[in-house]
Design goal:
Layout (H helix, E strand, L loop, with lengths): L6 H5 L3 H9 L4 E3 L13 E3 H18 L2 H8 L5 H5 L4 H15 L14 H14 L11 H7 L1
Antiparallel strand pairs: 1-2
Helix pairs in contact: 4-6, 6-7, 7-8
Amino acid sequence: MAEEINIEEEFVQGAEEVAALAADESALVEYVPKSKAPYKLNTLIPRNMAFEVQKALNRVVKLNGNIDNLVRNQLKYSTTEDMWKGLGAEQVDSIGLYLSQFERDQGIIIADQTGIGKGRQAAAVIRHAVMNGYLPVFFTRKPDLFTDMY
């Protein structure tokens, strides 16, 4: 008979261990955006995700050219500078990834932490839907989250 694992003993970490993991930024690296937007949020990305994200962005650029032009054209901004007034570099990259997934009839999950601009990204997705004749449907936990995005 297989030995049972005592989960409480095996997977419980002390507060000191958790704090040490949280303080260890070696697991994070600087995010390098493809967008040339002047406003950058100077975000970090988990080291083990950085390569795959850059690979996905490279695929978008290879298929569509400059990511700023792709997002500007798809969101129907008159100039790149106008787009940059509302979106930072990381957000433009994210919308570029969304547009790539949209073209493939696929979805995307935006799981950025607080303060990175998920609302702006959602607004860009809604703009894309409206500009292309789709009816966007938006669900929110609290009504004020919608007004912030609007």
